[in-house]
From TrEMBL:
Residues 1-25 form the signal peptide. Keywords: Carbohydrate metabolism, Hydrolase, Polysaccharide degradation, Signal. Residues 312-421 form the CBM2 domain. PROSITE patterns: CBM2. InterPro entries: AB_hydrolase_fold (IPR029058), CBD2 (IPR001919), CBM2/CBM3_carb-bd_dom_sf (IPR008965), CBM2_carb-bd_dom_sf (IPR012291), Esterase_phb (IPR010126), Plant_Biomass_Hydrol_Est (IPR050955). This is CBM2 domain-containing protein. Pfam families: CBM_2, Esterase_PHB. It comes from the Bacteria. SUPFAM superfamilies: alpha/beta-Hydrolases (SSF53474), Carbohydrate-binding domain (SSF49384). The lineage of its organism: Bacteria, Bacillati, Actinomycetota, Actinomycetes, Kitasatosporales. It comes from Streptomyces rubradiris.
Length: 421
């Protein structure tokens, strides 16, 4: 079985090697003694010269047969870290075959042992020794690393804010009880469950947890013969259920000719769930340019490595707001569309509203939200600041609640009260 796995992963290794970025000013450093590490993982850290005193963290998890240093040199994440100032942790598996444990009962439970425990120890070490920001921790990975991305978001939803999985499978799909690390039924795309069943597997990893859940970006090639394409649809079912958003896409587009991108629960760059299907591509992701889109999904390219400055508030104008929510237990996801109904363009906007008592924002997308409760102002991102007459911007947030899930009573855009629908 191991020989077969190595053979089918050879194209992935070749692509990652060919797409290796240029050398970096900073260097990759191995860290030892980083904390609980039941499966003897190795930890490598890339701290760019541009990192601020309190950097965000990206955990970048390699494929089978790979290593932390190979994933560092063969992907674009380190060069993107140079550009945007975040810290990258590269875990390295040491077991035969170089795969991560995404199968054992220990791996599929918070604090259960095995690789997830070691990886979270690496994050804690980075927070304690590099001053990393615990509120901006993200994870990405390819193949085995994509499967681990799913696992980490299920086991530790309070640690990771979002994930990007390149050619993976749903959380729990690879589960085995016989000590094997390979699940052929899942790899072949023959394991199908309802969204509720998939979601229950994730929720079962951390029983009783009712806090916010991390956003998820999913990538898959239609010709993947290692972790077959049906797994992509099953991942979408799982994470839309976990995040409490509709399985019907809020938007569909084609960023490149052979890409189909669907977004769920929102239409912006940081929607709750984003899924990109790559037509005619096999088990070779991420190829050039895809890492940058993952960084954008995380929000690590938005200049948030330093505290944001408050922009001046432009003149008021006529507006309309559409507001909808998906709720669960003690959490909710809100989707907002604000439309300029005036006759003049709006260049920079601030949308103000008051959350009902007990609601508190934990994360948001396509805007900067402050404060997290009470009277909140959502200010535009750099890429959606301009609203021509008739144009709209979509934004949203996740929040906790204590029972009242109702919408804000009113909204104002740059001081002008908006119509609602």
């Amino acid at each position: 079985m191991l020989t077969a796995v190595l053979a089918v992963l050879a194209p992935l290794l070749a692509v990652l090697t060919l797409s290796a970025p240029a050398a970096h000013a900073a260097s990759l450093t191995e860290v030892t003694g980083f904390g609980a590490n039941p499966s003897n993982l190795r930890m490598y850290v890339y701290r760019p010269d541009s990192a601020p005193a309190r950097p965000a963290v990206l955990v970048a998890v390699h494929y089978c047969t790979g290593s932390g240093p190979a994933f560092y040199s063969g992907t674009e994440f380190a060069s993107l870290a140079d550009r945007y100032g975040f810290l990258v942790i590269y875990p390295s598996a040491t077991r035969s075959g170089g795969c991560f444990d995404v199968s054992s009962p220990q791996a599929l439970k918070r604090g259960g042992g095995s690789d997830p425990v070691g990886i979270v120890s690496m994050v804690t070490y980075a927070e304690q020794h590099y001053g990393a920001d615990p509120n901006r921790v993200y994870v990405t990975g390819a193949s085995s690393g994509a499967m681990m991305t799913n696992v980490l978001l299920g086991d530790y939803p309070d640690v990771f804010k979002a994930g990007a999985a390149f050619s993976g499978v749903p959380f729990g799909c690879f589960a085995t009880t016989d000590g094997s690390g390979w699940n052929s039924a899942c790899a072949n795309g023959t394991v199908a469950k309802t969204p509720q069943q998939w979601g229950d597997l994730v929720r079962g990893a951390y029983p009783g947890y009712s806090g916010p859940r991390p956003r998820m970006q999913l990538w898959h090639g239609t010709e993947d013969t290692t972790l077959r394409y049906p797994n992509f649809g099953e991942e979408i079912k799982q994470w839309t259920n976990v995040l409490g958003v509709s399985q019907t896409p809020a938007s569909t587009d084609h960023p490149q000719s052979n890409w189909t991108r669907t977004r769920y629960g929102g239409t912006g760059t940081q929607a709750p769930v984003e899924a990109i299907s790559i037509q005619g591509v096999g088990h070779t992701l991420p190829t050039a340019g895809m890492a940058a889109r993952a960084i954008s999904f995380f929000g690590l390219d938005s200049g948030t490595t330093q505290p944001p400055t408050e922009p001046p508030t432009p003149p008021a104008g006529a507006c309309k707001v559409t507001y909808s929510t998906s709720t669960w237990n003690s959490g909710l996801t809100a989707a907002i569309t604000v439309t300029n109904t005036g006759t003049e363009p709006v260049d920079g906007w601030a949308l103000t509203f008051t959350l009902p008592a007990g609601q508190a924002i934990t994360s948001g997308w396509n805007a900067q939200f402050s404060p997290s409760s009470g009277t909140v102002t959502a200010r535009n991102a750099a890429y959606n600041a301009s609203l021509a007459p008739g144009a709209s911007a979509t934004l949203g947030f996740q929040a906790t609640h204590t029972g009242d899930t109702s919408a804000p009573a009113s909204f104002s855009l740059n001081g002008a009260t908006c119509a609602t629908s």
